[in-house]
Known about the structure:
With 256 residues, this protein is an alpha+beta fold. The protein is 22% helix and 27% strand. It is built from six helices and 14 strands. The chain has helices at residues 11-24, 44-48, 71-74, 118-134, 160-163, 171-182, and strands at residues 2-7, 29-33, 52-57, 65-70, 78-82, 94-99, 102-108, 142-147, 185-187, 201-202, 214-215, 218-223, 232-235, 251-254. It has a six-stranded mixed sheet. Strands 5-6-7-8-12-9 form a six-stranded mixed sheet, with helices on one face. The chain has a two-stranded antiparallel sheet with strand order 10-11. Strand 1, helix 1 and strand 2 form a beta-alpha-beta unit. The longest helix has 17 residues, at 118-134. It is globular and about 45 Å long. The model has no long low-confidence stretch (mean pLDDT 97). The protein binds one DNA strand of 18 nucleotides through loops.
Amino acid sequence: MKLATWNINSLKVRLPHVIDWLQKEPVDVLCLQETKLRDENFPKAELEAIGYDVAFSGQPTYNGVALLTRRETVGAPAAVTIGNPLFDDEQKRLISADVGGLRVICAYFPNGQSVGSDKYAYKLRWIDALHEWLAQPQSLPTVLLGDFNIAPDDRDVHDPAAWEGQVLCSPQERERFAALLALGFVDAFRLFEQPPKTFSWWDYRQLAFRRNAGLRIDHILVPGSLAAQVRECRIDREPRKREQPSDHAPVLADLG
DNA sequence: ATGGCAATGTTTCATTGA
């Protein structure tokens, strides 16, 4: 089973990119973040037409998450859950479903703006609530994938000195990422030797992509019990090279 | 120290992202 996560920064703008990418990489599950669409505007028919069933939770302007599942291999998302039952949140950042014998959680972690801000406090509370939820027994082996807005360690940062202590890299965020792993997950990307300076996000400004001035903040966490069967995990930079790209690249894992 | 780029809304700029 192949899974992927991609922050597409507006599904309205990026729908052609998503469709083209799925033709090239027909993953069984694609998790999207920052759809930025009201549910009534979600391009359900267009995605169904290329063989994907969908579950989504959106709002105007900000946030919004979706699960796309390949109909012929894994069928439609089942037992869909919106949000975290332990955390009342107006922001649409979580959607989960049973797919192919796994519980798949698609997450768009808060950005946090800057260390010490109200948004940063919200980010920490949000992650703590996610942790609390995932600490509860789950019905199926659980995969957590999405835009974590955390660079787990300095290997995931193009300029660790410049980013030290900043939001996305702060000790409190990294501790929380480690605490999620301690629940029994592994970072699929780090199961394999990877090229140095592999990132999943690059700022739109200052030619950051061309300079590879990026961060690795999009992740796929798999249960430790499944780690031995994971065949591959990589980041596909190709879509970031297109005209009018998302600032994030998709991350893929093959769970065997 | 600041803004730089991009998307959204109902816009003529403010807000947010990371």
